[in-house]
Amino acid sequence: MAHKHPHADGNGARDMEINPIFSREPLTIPRYALPPGELDPGTAYQVVHDELMLDGNARLNLATFVSTWAEPEAVRLMTECADKNMVDKDEYPRTAELELRCVHMLARLWHAPDPPRTVGCSTTGSSEAAMLGGLALKRRWRARRRAAGLPADRPNLVMGVNVQICWEKFANYFEVEPRYVPMEGDRYHLGAREAVELCDENTIGVVAVLGSTFDGSYEPVAEIASALDDLEERTGLDVPVHVDGASGAMVAPFLDPGLHWDFRLPRVASINTSGHKYGLVMPGVGWALWRDEGALPDDLVFHVNYLGGDMPTFALNFSRPGAQVVAQYYNFLRLGFDGYRRVQQTCRDVATRLAADIGRLGPFETLTDGGDIPVFAFRVRDGVRNFTVFDVSAAMRESGWLVPAYTFPENRTDLAVLRVVVRNGFGHDLADLFLDDLRRALRRLSAQEAPQRTPEDAAGFSHGAEAKTTKTTRTTKTPGRG
């Protein structure tokens, strides 16, 4: 469906009346059509600048996982590289070299068996990177099926219902049946036993999420891989794992080095992450890596002449700026391992402390404590009758804070929560200000006679916690070859 303006169709809306600036005459310009002539650059800037003042303050946006702060030096480098097209590797060989270095750095960070030979690429974000991982799984499965003389027309992908919506898009765009494991009781993400129960000969892979957008928790990747090892031993079914590490793949290596979730597990075929989340880059970069050349079918790879040699590329987007890749390399160089560890530890410290403080306020109960990725979810306790999480979200928005409220998906739709994402730049001082505003909001909300907001009133900024289309969800599938 084509994008439609939510407030007007552009035909009858009033044109913009532009105030005089210095000696310039007042102007009237159309909102939804090209002006008939040119504008002074200062006037055009002021028109756009003034309208953007009505946007929310990005630093107070506790819904988004995307970085909202960067060092001035990183911003300066991005400005210097804004005109470089990432795809033109022969024209911008040094930018291409920095991309390759980032891939090798991530390969070592994620314990690839042979980092110099690890295949990977930058993308526009973790959604594109996830789709590339899924597409590689599908092609590998299809090649195996055809080589064995078996039908390859009914691929499926197993994942928890808590996956980011990009996986629903992947299943739709690339014609793969999504098999969602619903939430049950206090299990808010994918479990190993539940994943294996949905696998069969048509399963191209299992997606394990390192940092669920619903509550910030890690899925048990090692347990899932072990259960799939047992499945192969019993049935011969070889089902690979893709780790969606959009957030956690840039947190766990620094804060949880003993957690096995990456290429140390032989069943992990590929990993994606978002450089513009806990990779600490401004929006516009993600990364996809495969454990070795065999994990990425060669028929998906395009080869580019680069510095007299061959550089394989694999991406859905073509033209895009190299600025974010350069900023990623800057961050890797600037912070190093210990710098990233300190930044992520501070985020986790703020998250766990803020979650504990909110839990002590009385009306709230925390579901998670921010101890995995620095994200936590909390709900209104049973027995509180005069306001809902949706009332709290609306009240905090009046003070400038964007705190998403949403209901959980299938089998736990009774559970409505608020979620806080702690990012670099949201320190203990801002956490104190947030708590002050929350306490003030609670005094007013507690005086209400009844809730004023429902799920239908919630703003659409849950950032990954959207409900999935689960008509293909299965819960009792017995693994086997038939």
From TrEMBL:
GO MF assignments: glutamate decarboxylase activity
Stored Pfam families: Pyridoxal_deC
Top-rank EC class of the record's enzyme: lyase
Spans annotated as Disordered: 446-482
Presence of the UniProt keyword Lyase in the record: yes
The keyword rRNA-binding belongs to this UniProt entry's keyword annotation: no
Key words, A-Z: Decarboxylase, Lyase, Pyridoxal phosphate
EC number: 4.1.1.15
Cofactor: pyridoxal 5'-phosphate
Reaction(s) the record says it catalyses: L-glutamate + H(+) = 4-aminobutanoate + CO2
Compositionally biased intervals (Low complexity): 470-482
PANTHER family linked to this entry: GLUTAMATE DECARBOXYLASE (PTHR43321)
The family this protein is said to belong to: Belongs to the group II decarboxylase family.
Protein name stated in the entry: Glutamate decarboxylase
Species assigned in the record: Actinomadura monticuli
Upper classification of the organism: Bacteria, Bacillati, Actinomycetota, Actinomycetes, Streptosporangiales
